[in-house]
Inverse folding.
């Protein structure tokens, strides 16, 4: 007890203990994104099999002018999980060519990413005012209220796909309640496609996604002094057509026990037992539309790439929703 009081446990400790004690075992996917994991994710976005990032960027490039037209004048773009703002730059540039005033509020938990986002947008040389916001969405979306003017809230990259349908609706609804009638939402969703293409995107031939997945265990070893043997787990990516999602697991290659001394926990694994680390939902246009409707938005336009692999939805905040 004394030792436990002396050590400051990371904020995710309880969740990890709960997840590893449950049946089936789970770990929260937010644990992916420490410095190592964020760098690995950047690498994933450049993999030939991971079509999502490049496809969404292609839609933005091809349709930025059209989007800018639908947005009217003097828009403040607020990007949730902005990262380094690579994708948004396209839209910001189109907006600034058309509009008198464009402001950009990138929101992220990573200060380093926000710094890069600011530099990138400022280097466009278009006098876009950049105001980075450091925020963690688990604290809610109240910060949106303090951002002035007409807002376009962008939530790109199919990040919404990590939430199961009820949680996605409640999160989009929470954002909605912080917005005013003339504000808008730009949502990126990955779409259902062939199983082979989906599985390849989450189980790439270079093993980067495997490394990304296993980094959760490496992180628990680093931060909780756990003793996961990374060689004794394998990366598994499965398409679940019934729930319309990719499921990512770490599967134990043998019977083993793992110690997590800071959590006072010893976890037993049977051979082939899995830890569920992530879901990535894939939508049909209708399900995405339905999700937006149920969270208080009215869809005004959906843009696709030439193969219909990915969709960008622009929606209004329903008056009185
Ligand atoms: C960042 C949640 C959009 O689900 O495609 C990539 C994360 N996981 N490869 C996704 C991820 C494995 C990614 N999102």
């Amino acid at each position: 007890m004394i030792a436990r009081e002396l050590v400051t446990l990371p904020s995710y400790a309880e969740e990890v203990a709960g997840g590893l004690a449950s049946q089936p075992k789970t770990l929260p996917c937010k644990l992916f994104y420490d410095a190592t994991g964020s760098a690995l994710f950047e690498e994933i976005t450049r993999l030939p099999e991971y079509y999502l990032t490049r496809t969404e960027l292609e839609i933005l490039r091809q349709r930025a002018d059209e989007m800018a037209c639908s947005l009217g004048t003097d828009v403040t773009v607020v990007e949730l999980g902005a990262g380094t703002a690579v994708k948004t730059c396209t839209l910001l540039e189109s907006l600034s060519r058309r509009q008198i005033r464009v402001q950009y509020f990138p929101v992220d938990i990573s200060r380093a990413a926000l710094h890069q986002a600011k530099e990138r947008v400022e280097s466009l040389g278009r006098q876009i005012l950049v105001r980075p916001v450091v925020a963690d969405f688990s604290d809610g979306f109240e910060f949106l209220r303090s951002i002035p003017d007409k807002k376009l809230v962008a939530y790109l990259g199919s990040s919404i796909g990590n939430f199961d349908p009820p949680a996605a609706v409640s999160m989009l609804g929470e954002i909605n309640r912080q917005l005013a009638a003339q504000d808008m939402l730009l949502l990126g969703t990955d779409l259902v496609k062939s199983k082979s293409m989906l599985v390849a995107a989450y189980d790439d031939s270079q093993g980067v996604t495997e490394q990304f997945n296993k980094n959760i265990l490496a992180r628990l070893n680093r931060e909780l002094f756990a003793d996961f043997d990374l060689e004794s787990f394998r990366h598994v990516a499965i398409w679940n057509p019934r729930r319309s999602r990719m499921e990512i697991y770490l599967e134990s290659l043998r019977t083993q026990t793992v110690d997590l001394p800071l959590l006072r926990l010893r976890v037993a694994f049977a051979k082939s037992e899995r830890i569920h680390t992530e879901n990535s939902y894939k939508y049909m246009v209708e399900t995405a539309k339905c999700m937006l409707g149920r969270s208080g938005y009215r869809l005004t336009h959906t843009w696709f790439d030439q193969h219909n692999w990915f969709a960008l939805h622009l929606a209004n905040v329903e008056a009185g929703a």
The first helix runs from residue 2 to 6. The mean pLDDT is 94.
